[in-house]
Amino acid sequence: MDNFTFCTPTRYLFGRGVENEVGRLCKNAEWKNVMIVYGGGSAVKSGLLDRVTASLDAEGISHISLGGVKPNPTDDLVYEGIDRCRRSGADALLAVGGGSVIDTAKAIACGVPYDGDFWDFFAGKAVVGPALPLGVVLTIPAAGSEGSGNSVITRLDGLLKLSLRTDTALRPKFACLNPELTFTLPPYQTASGIADMMVHIMERYFSPTEDVEVTDRLAEGLLKAIIAEAPKVMACPDDYQARANIMWSGTLAHNGICGCGRREDWASHFMEHELSAIYGVTHGAGLAVIVPAWLEYVSRIKPAKVAQFGRRVFDVNEHDDTAAATETVCCLRGFFSSIGLPVTMKALGIEAPDFNLLVSKLHENKGPQIGGYITLGKEDTEAIYRLAAE
Amino acid sequence: MDNFTFCTPTRYLFGRGVENEVGRLCKNAEWKNVMIVYGGGSAVKSGLLDRVTASLDAEGISHISLGGVKPNPTDDLVYEGIDRCRRSGADALLAVGGGSVIDTAKAIACGVPYDGDFWDFFAGKAVVGPALPLGVVLTIPAAGSEGSGNSVITRLDGLLKLSLRTDTALRPKFACLNPELTFTLPPYQTASGIADMMVHIMERYFSPTEDVEVTDRLAEGLLKAIIAEAPKVMACPDDYQARANIMWSGTLAHNGICGCGRREDWASHFMEHELSAIYGVTHGAGLAVIVPAWLEYVSRIKPAKVAQFGRRVFDVNEHDDTAAATETVCCLRGFFSSIGLPVTMKALGIEAPDFNLLVSKLHENKGPQIGGYITLGKEDTEAIYRLAAE
Predict the structure, then answer these.
(1) Interface contact flag, A252 B214, Cβ < 8 Å
(2) Cβ proximity of B133 and B55 under 8 Å
(3) What is the third-level CATH fold of A11-181?
(4) What is the pLDDT of residues B32-42, one digit of tens each?
(5) ipTM surpasses cut 0.85
(6) Which residue, A219, A318, B14, B378, is most buried by CB atoms nearer than 10 A?
(7) In the predicted model, what is the mean pLDDT of residues A148-163?
(8) How far is CA A212 from its chain centroid?
(9) Residue A217 with chain B: CB contacts under 8 Å
């Protein structure tokens, strides 16, 4: 086990009706003037935004709003948000939505007090210092941004999708998680969210660090819970208990607890970021295509942990590590398929992937070598993209 | 799954040498004058206290100290600590030790700014308001107090052992966890700590709340990790990796994550508190006696969850719930025995337990009914004490 530091100060309110606590939470935090960030029409149509603003009004908290965040959120809206926050004197942000909305709010939060271009933080040219505080009302369990200090933004100029990691500077002060708000998610979005949270766990699980049994077991436990509950939410979208289990799993998948004490991987996420930056696919669906291909590739080189994963998570019964690893890849692909996700680029709608472009952008953005469990160069990542093609 | 709130703001520094970060952590927190609380000679003899004070000195942080905390810590030292903190103007506490030391520091922390008797908080007559902040250097992985908002103190007058729960008021600001500091723990203390952390998980696992798969799976995963690593630390006390896994498990066992979304039980802890208050036994060893008896008793009434526990944690293979539950009780007793713990009061040195005294004190202190998985009255708890006798 490696040395680590771990700090997750976010206050979670979980359950029915918790979004109505927003006003009280903002007031306790002594926020006076909040900018609400949200996405498209669903938060408006469902009445959620009305409930949130009513809760703020009841506590006398001023608010402005910034709507229109799209999946794979882009820098243009971040710049607009920073500008509007500064002009209105907003002292906090309230993200009402999923990962794209939260990530946009986080980028605005660190951009407002910063003299330079907020993109400096994502490009690694500056370290986040002071930031506006942030609250969340979560509507999509997937990205785990409600419990992380991270943000992923795409720069429109050059379609550069980069992630920013902070220790606690961008962790939300509070997050309201009401599983009922997820009842109306379309099946494809529900399934993509499930893939996303599973891969957040796997990116931490597949590590070169040995002897991290406690973190392994937590990761395996979370994955087993997700695999048990996923078919229920797909079959019955308003199954409160199953939605609740999935929602809380999504938060724990990415708050860092599954990474404590070890190096992480993240090659699959980096590879998928290029897919969604270039082809505009849904992030979780892109992961369902990339990750089994990645797992297949690395299992040929280093099967032991893949075999452990399969035995403990999918109850694979093969004694031999190589055979168990092969079976594990099948189980993972089979599981993603069973919840309606594509497992090839072709099924994802990418008929003729530009492997050269994918690989060159990937290594241009992330360096010549990526990954932790196995270090991958250009030849490796091209092979994985090709395995994922069809 | 029940509605819940969850907030664990403690910053954990984990690994070799992290106790040397104490000065920097105190300085970052803007503490100027710290009272160090510790127990007996081992923190002095090992040189740990010297390293901690050197780290404080290097950052120019003043300190006084309060030693002499004993297992099952008592109110007398709390009163002394409150008095000395007030007189010296200490603005923070630094607990260097295990649960008894941390719990004493927590009681002092809430007592200092309070006009009345600190015992009011434990007796349920007052709610903790402002408290001095607290840091921890952990030396015994067991009580989990380094990550919890709780404290357990015994009042000498009447041997009343009561626990106090707070949301975040008494959660440490930081906790330094260096597994090397646990190498020299005697085997009995190591084993008792393992029992304590396992039972912290079980008290949350055995719940009347249904459909909490994610929290169940986390709990089971932690228990499996502890069961895998425990024999290693018993066989080889300076096995860093095994000690590290056990140490981090002990923190996660009690920071609340295994209780999210459900009612908890705590009958076994309440029953053990009487045992250690009256007979002065080591808390974890007392639990190793009480919990299998409790599990045996409740499994006769409600075997299903006991069977699930056995199948998932001990790989019990019985199809029938009642048979599986019976087998599970054997597995748990066998495990505690295998790490050298007593599993009867007789083996614990209590030859002729005073059942009337135990039961009457228990229900006098905790009310006529205790427990969550099964509600237990006087007849039940007497039966459990009798099952635990020999």
Answers:
(1) yes
(2) no
(3) Rossmann fold (3.40.50)
(4) 999 999 998 78
(5) yes
(6) A219
(7) 91
(8) 23
(9) 221-222, 224-225
